[in-house]
């Protein structure tokens, strides 16, 4: 029985919660901006995301033409780190649950 003043929560499957937390269910989105040059964006993708020249250029063009590109799909923690690093280089990056 629960102590007075405490609430019990419905049964939570801890294993499912752990799987969810560590699933690659978060997308990192880079948004277009009028400031950064295309060559610089390619450089940042290669530096932060370890992309090759072709992939970095493809994502840069997608950002330029469509306004955004999903550049990574990772765990929540890793996505937060990538967003932080991309912002450190001056790119407009966000993350969203996929």
Strand proportion, as a percent range, falls in 15-25%
Flag low-confidence runs: none
First-to-last CA distance:
39 Å
* Strand runs, count: 3
Radius of gyration: 19 Å
CATH topology, by name, is Ribosomal Protein L30, Chain: A
- CATH homologous superfamily annotation: Ribosomal protein L7/L12, C-terminal domain/Adaptor protein ClpS
The average pLDDT score comes to 91
Largest sheet entry: 3 strands, antiparallel
Characterise the protein shown here.
This protein is of the alpha+beta class and 98 residues long. The protein has a single domain (24-97), classed as Ribosomal Protein L30, Chain: A (2-Layer Sandwich), CATH 3.30.1390.10. 48% of the residues lie in helices and 19% in strands. It has helices spanning 14-22, 38-48, 53-66, 76-88; strands spanning 26-31, 68-74, 92-97. Strands 2-1-3 form a three-stranded antiparallel sheet. Helix 2 crosses helix 3. The radius of gyration is 19 Å and the shape is elongated. The relative contact order is 0.23.
């Amino acid at each position: 029985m629960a102590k007075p003043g405490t609430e019990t929560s419905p049964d939570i499957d801890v294993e499912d919660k752990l799987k969810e937390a560590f699933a690659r269910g978060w997308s990192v989105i880079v948004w277009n901006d009028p400031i950064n040059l295309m060559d610089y964006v390619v450089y940042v993708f290669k530096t932060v995301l370890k992309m090759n020249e072709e992939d970095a250029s493809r994502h840069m063009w997608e950002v330029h033409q469509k306004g955004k590109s999903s550049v990574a799909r990772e765990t929540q923690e890793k996505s937060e780190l990538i967003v932080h690093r991309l912002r450190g280089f001056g790119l407009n990056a966000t993350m969203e649950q996929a």
